[in-house]
Design brief:
The complex is a heterodimer of chains A (110) and B (112). Chain A has 110 residues and is mainly β. Helix content of chain A is 0%, strand content 50%. Chain B is mostly beta strands and 112 residues long. The chains are: A mainly beta (110), B mainly beta (112). The interface between A and B is medium-sized, with 20 and 19 residues.
Chain lengths: 110, 112
């Protein structure tokens, strides 16, 4: 069945350093949507960015990701982390339904 | 104003009891969902509904029953509650085919 893998459970880094959160997926569906959702403490998940197009960079709020169907990847990146980026980040796959990876906690230190 | 309303925000129940979690969406979406989030299984898909019909069910237990009285309502009835049911239950909605989920604020359920 469909699955999403986020290899890091926790990423801790210092403010100003680059962020990269990994996401790979498996699906038999040839045209899935891939999403990144962000969930701040005591809030609900909200969409950060999404993509449907192979090899096209998608950007929002300083974050970017590129869907690579050849490697089934959709890694999230940001050039410079901010304290306010500390949150739980979910990669999600939308084929017949939307399923989420286990999430990566990003902890940005001053 | 919140466009997806979940009630109550917090719920404490005793083992063996029954509770109903309420969800209404005012985004005009044609699909609604329930997800569960706990420390053991973050954001786990439970059910999806469209036009008051069940589309997908990934919940093994029949103790969880979705109920849709209107197309913008999707309540979740949970019977014979167990401590393991303690979690935050999120309602979400989307337009079919577009797949972008919008979440409510969640109901945090604690079963004692």
């Amino acid at each position: 069945g469909d699955s999403v893998t986020q290899t890091e459970g926790l990423v801790t880094l210092t403010e100003g350093l680059p962020v990269m959160l990994n996401c790979t997926y498996q699906t038999i569906y040839s045209n899935p949507f891939l999403f990144w959702y962000v969930q701040h403490l005591n809030e609900s998940p909200r969409l950060l960015l999404k993509s449907f197009t192979d090899n096209k960079r998608t950007e929002h709020q300083g974050f970017h990701a590129t869907l690579h169907k050849s490697s089934s990847s959709f890694h999230l990146q940001k050039s410079s982390a901010q304290l306010s980026d500390s949150a739980l980040y979910y990669c999600a796959l939308g084929a017949y339904k939307v399923i989420f990876g286990k999430g990566t906690h990003l902890h940005v230190l001053p | 104003d919140p466009k997806i309303i979940q009630k109550p925000k917090y719920l404490v129940a005793v083992t063996g009891s029954e509770k109903i979690l309420i969800c209404e969406q005012y985004l005009g979406h044609n699909a609604m969902y329930w997800y569960r989030q706990s420390a053991k299984k973050p954001l786990e898909f439970m059910f999806s509904y469209s036009y008051q019909k069940l589309m997908d069910n990934q919940t093994a237990s029949s103790r969880f029953q979705p109920q849709s009285s209107k197309k913008n309502h999707l309540d979740l009835q949970i019977t014979a509650l167990k401590p393991d049911d303690s979690a935050t239950y999120f309602c979400a909605s989307s337009q079919l085919g577009e797949n972008t989920l919008y979440f409510g604020a969640g109901t945090r359920l604690s079963v004692l």
